Amino acid sequence: MDYILTNVLCCTIDDEPRFTKILQGWIKEKEVPKFDSFTKESKKKKESRKRKVSVGHLSELSEQSNCYFRIIN
Fold first, then answer.
1. What's the start-to-end Cα distance of the chain, in Å?
2. Cβ atoms of residues 13 and 50 within 8 Å
3. Gap between the Cα atoms of 27 and 31, Å rounded
4. How far is it, in rounded angstroms, from Cα 16 to Cα 13?
5. Is residue 5 within 8 Å of 11, Cβ to Cβ?
6. DSSP string, 9-51
7. Are 53 and 17 in contact (CB under 8 A)?
8. 18/7 Cα distance (integer angstroms)
9. Cβ–Cβ < 8 Å for 56, 41
10. How many Cα atoms occupy the beta-carbon half-sphere of 70 within 13 Å?
11. pLDDT digits (tens, 9 = 90+) for 12-53
């Protein structure tokens, strides 16, 4: 899922449930192979991915506010 979220244009962590549902359907229909890294991904790994996104978002906001502060001063 990390690879998918990194490489699909314009997607966010909010798209993960939708992608998961699509992929599980394809696996069920045997349209794509079943990989343990996807089907047996731990909750800890999923939570880690969400934390990385929220921390990245906070640092991005911080950078944006620093730029704004520099412009108005």
1. 42
2. yes
3. 6
4. 5
5. yes
6. TT--GGGHHHHHHHHHHHHHTTSS---HHHHT--HHHHHHHHH
7. no
8. 16
9. no
10. 6
11. 888 999 999 999 999 999 999 998 888 888 888 888 877 776
